[in-house]
Design goal:
Helix content: 40-55%
Radius of gyration: 24 Å
Mean pLDDT: 97
Low-confidence stretches: none
Structural class: alpha/beta
Shape: globular
Strand content: 5-15%
Distance between the termini: 40 Å
Number of strands: 14
Largest sheet: 8 strands, parallel, barrel
Length: about 425
């Protein structure tokens, strides 16, 4: 069955094209900074937003009626598999991502749930073989079911903790079966509402224990995927333990897990934490922990996770600037953890949303490469920190200085000759790069 009938396979037609069902910027075979766009970006479809979302929000019911919604239960799940691979083929997207609850209905028991998952995983595996498409990452939904009302890996109830562990065990087995390149941990309920009823030390210790058990089991079954943790500051909990990149890295370092995990960073999560996406990427890269990206954007007038398709060219450019500077995203990718707006309810809006995101990231990639190749910012940065390359500054960097030596230098060099940071000029140069590609 064909699910997307209103458009054919999306092709690159260039900037002058007026065809809404064509790429204007994303040319997968175009070489940028030594690699093709496809190799740089490694785009992925988010199964939950693309095939499961129906347009509900806290104030309104579903607006999106999909062609697979005429089915129920496992039949609907099977139809979604077919739709996923048709969609990936038509948009030339190489990867997809999912939670366990996205691909198969939960049964009355864990045994029944796992049986449902096995049916769909076998189907996914067959489609991967037929199409060459791959699983970028999978994960366990340890946050939706009411059993996780008080957390999963940080649950106050050991039975809920055990159930979460069982879901992760199955998720690792599924990841191995499907050849997932990564496995993600997202702490949707790993946080607290009030410290008045929270044993934070126990919860954090238990979360670290769960991560270690996951590492051990992955090694036991020979699943060599890259493990990723996805930071988020709030929503649904008031304060989540993986608040941002820096907090998550500190947690991993405390428990000796820093060599076993990298970070899966999401743009909208960064802004909810009071950061920019490029800030989170820089923090992760500086600590050698940049793993993968969830591409979206938030509405800055709203205080929650709106998961809009990324179309802000300044953000996509700065994102790819950081990625290129970091040497790429390795086994990670650019997963569109984004959903079309509730008012964009027609089937072809799913394609138009992904085209917008893919073109925006391709545009950002080209602009970022131009900035790096022309050393637009590098020369100013080198000049700003030039005093740390000679004399007393070089001694500081080499670890050869002391407070006494620095005091002596300050006494004999009382004038500090600062230079302008040229912020306004740099921002204009960023604009010039974006609109010149």
């Amino acid at each position: 069955m064909t699910y997307f009938t209103s458009f054919d396979k999306i092709q690159f037609e260039g900037k002058t094209s007026k065809n809404p069902f064509a790429f204007k910027q994303y040319n997968p075979s175009e070489v940028v900074s030594g690699k093709t766009m496809e190799e740089h970006l490694r785009f992925a479809v988010a199964y939950w937003h693309t095939f499961n979302a129906n347009g509900t929000d806290p104030f309104g019911s579903a607006t999106m009626i999909r062609s697979w919604d005429k089915y129920d239960g496992l039949d609907r799940s099977k139809a979604r598999v077919e739709a996923n691979f048709e969609f990936m083929d038509k948009l030339n997207i190489p990867y997809y991502c999912f939670h366990d609850a996205d691909i198969a209905p939960e049964g009355a028991t864990l045994q029944e749930t796992n049986k449902n998952i096995d049916v769909i995983v076998a189907m996914l595996k067959d489609y991967q073989k037929q199409t060459g498409k791959k699983l970028l990452w999978n994960t366990a939904n340890n946050f939706t079911n009411p059993r996780y009302v008080h957390g999963a890996g940080t649950a106050v109830n050991a039975n809920a903790y055990a159930f979460a562990a069982a879901q992760i065990k199955k998720g690792l087995e599924v990841g191995k079966e499907l050849g997932a390149e990564n496995y993600v941990f997202w702490g949707g309920r790993e946080g607290y509402e009030s410290l008045l009823n929270t044993n934070m030390a126990l919860e954090l210790d238990n979360l670290a224990r769960l991560y270690q058990m996951s590492i051990d089991y992955a090694n036991e079954i020979g699943f060599d995927a890259q493990f990723l943790i996805e930071p988020k500051p709030k929503e649904p909990t008031t304060h989540q333990y993986d608040f941002d990149a820096a907090t998550t890295i500190a947690f991993l370092q405390k428990y000796g897990l820093q060599d076993k995990f990298k970070l899966n960073l999401e743009a909208n999560h960064a802004t909810l934490a009071g950061h920019t996406f490029e800030h989170e990427i820089r923090v992760a890269a500086t600590n050698g922990m940049l793993g993968s990206l969830d591409a979206n954007q938030g509405n800055m007038l709203l205080g929650w996770d709106t998961d809009e398709f990324p179309t802000d060219l300044y953000t996509t450019t700065l994102t790819m600037y950081e990625v290129l500077k970091a040497g790429g995203i390795g086994r990670g990718g650019v997963n569109f953890d984004a959903k079309v707006r509730r008012t964009s309810f027609e089937m072809d809006d799913l394609a138009l949303g992904h085209i917008a995101g893919m073109d925006s990231f391709a545009w950002g990639l080209k602009a970022a490469a131009k900035l790096i190749e022309e050393k637009t910012f590098d020369s100013l940065i080198d000049d700003r920190y030039a005093t740390f390359t000679t004399g007393i500054g070089a001694d500081v960097v080499a670890g050869k200085s002391s407070l006494k030596a620095l005091e002596a230098h300050a006494l004999t060099n009382p004038v500090v000759d600062n230079k302008s940071g040229r912020i306004e000029r740099l921002r204009l140069q960023l604009s010039e790069a974006i609109y010149s590609v």
